Amino acid sequence: KRNGSVGLRKASLMNQAFLMKVGWKLCTGPNDFWVQVVRAKYKCGNDVLLVIDKHPPITNLWKGVVKC
Length: 68
Prior knowledge:
By secondary structure, the protein is mainly alpha-helical. Helices cover about 50% and strands about 0% of the residues. The chain has three helices and no strands. Helix 1 (about 10-30) crosses helix 3 (about 60-65).
């Protein structure tokens, strides 16, 4: 505490790390049910690399994944 820190991580960096983890799982776990749902909802295709289309009705999760 004297050195200016209480040992807490920056929330924005942690959020970015979690969004990157979600993006990685979307690429590597095509058999997971939630991955199939998200890929179908946002029309990402079935390839390993996602087809990212920024269309207006998107959720905060998808905005974050697209940004990362």
